[in-house]
Amino acid sequence: MNKNFFASLFDFKFESYITKQVASVMYAILVILVSLGTAIMFLYSLTQLGGYNAMQALLLMILTPVAGLLVLTTLRVAFESSIALVDIAINTKK
């Protein structure tokens, strides 16, 4: 069952799983993208503080990090669920 990544990728019988190999890389990329998006939105809210929508900018400053953490938490739970499901499949196959 220990195939390399490309052999597992083109295994049309789904006898080997690539979820564990791909999950860590995908999660790292998504953490970087969500963090970058959160930082950009936070900086945007800082630029809007002196204008007419100062209250909206302040609310955006507060909600942006909270939303970023919520997205990261949801992503982590989704990846952990996928990996747990693959672990169950591997253990029941034995």
Protein described:
- This protein is mainly alpha-helical and 94 residues long.
- The chain has one domain.
- Helix content is 79%, strand content 0%.
- Helix 2 runs antiparallel to helix 3.
- The longest helix is centred in the C-terminal third of the chain and has 40 residues.
- The chain starts with a helix and ends with a helix.
- The mean pLDDT is 89.
Radius of gyration from CA coordinates: 20 Å
Strand content: under 5%
Described by the principal axes of the CA atoms, the overall outline is elongated
Q: Report on the biggest sheet.
A: none
How would you state the average pLDDT, rounded?
A: 89
How far is the N terminus from the C terminus?
11 Å
Kindly name the structural category. Answer: mainly alpha
Q: So how many helices?
A: 3
Count every beta strand, where a strand is a DSSP E run of 2 or more residues.
Answer: 0
Helix-strand sequence: HHH
Number of domains: 1
Helix content: over 70%
Which key features would you list for this structure?
94 residues; mainly alpha
Which helices and strands appear, and what pairs or packs with what?
Layout: H1 5-9, H2 19-47, H3 54-93
Helix pairs in contact: 2-3
